[in-house]
Amino acid sequence: MAQDVDLERPGRDDNPLHGIALTAGACALFAIADTTSKYLAQSLPVVEIQWLRYVMFFGMAAALAARAPERTFRPRNPKLQLLRGLCVTGSSVLFVYGIRRMTMSQATTISFLSPLLVTILSIPILGEVVGIRRWGAVAAGIAGMLIVVRPGSEGFQPAALFGVASSCCWGLALVVTRKISGSDTPRTTIFWSSMVGAAALTALEPFNAAWPTSGQLALGLMLGVLSSAGQWLVVLAHRLAPASVLAPIAYSQLIWVTIAGWIVFHNLPDRWTLLGASIIVASGLYTAHRERVRRHLPARDRA
Length: 303
Description:
The chain is built from 12 helices and no strands. It has 303 residues and is mainly alpha-helical.
């Protein structure tokens, strides 16, 4: 843990460089965690892999919450916290189902659709107005996704649909996070997301159980530690710098997963994946830029 940050205190410390460093570190941890998930998915049920992850996640979140005031356990929006927890869990499970049959770079590229989906979902849920430029970025991102997925071609992999569904779940989770951010602290949100995920996967585990070897168990627990540490670094980073500053750094995860995919699974992205990734990253960066610009505009001009 890089530092002891008071997650109950409103506001943010202004240290963009530190926030960027933490985001880059989180991306590296997520890449290692995703690689571990893909490796384990060759021999263990997906639900069991995620169950091991969430057991560790909940244990770490509960220890964190125990240091906070009692209100940490009492969200003001329990239904939205439940929805967020289910969306985050669903996104994780669906992502691993997809990554079993796709390359690391393909699965991660599709996952970067989530920020663009936030733009769409923010209209009915948050009541935001989306202008033509942001709609153009969304259209470009979807075009990039279609290039990666290639429906109707010989290169199409049905597993990509799991990746798209995972992105939709994560996009909804991000919109819900925005909606509850003004009433519940990050510590509360982390605790409830981990608890909901652990409970849901524990209920499903008896239907997907397989006895892991000691090595698989160790990797599963390591996965939980890595992904939990990555989530914590993300929380810290967003207290140090605006999301629009950190968004471009998140795309560095593509570099890490490409390297990991080459080292562990001996595969590299093809030219279509690289082209689609370039379009999705460009549209995502433009969306982040527009978010930054919108904050400085009068409310009537925020489109």
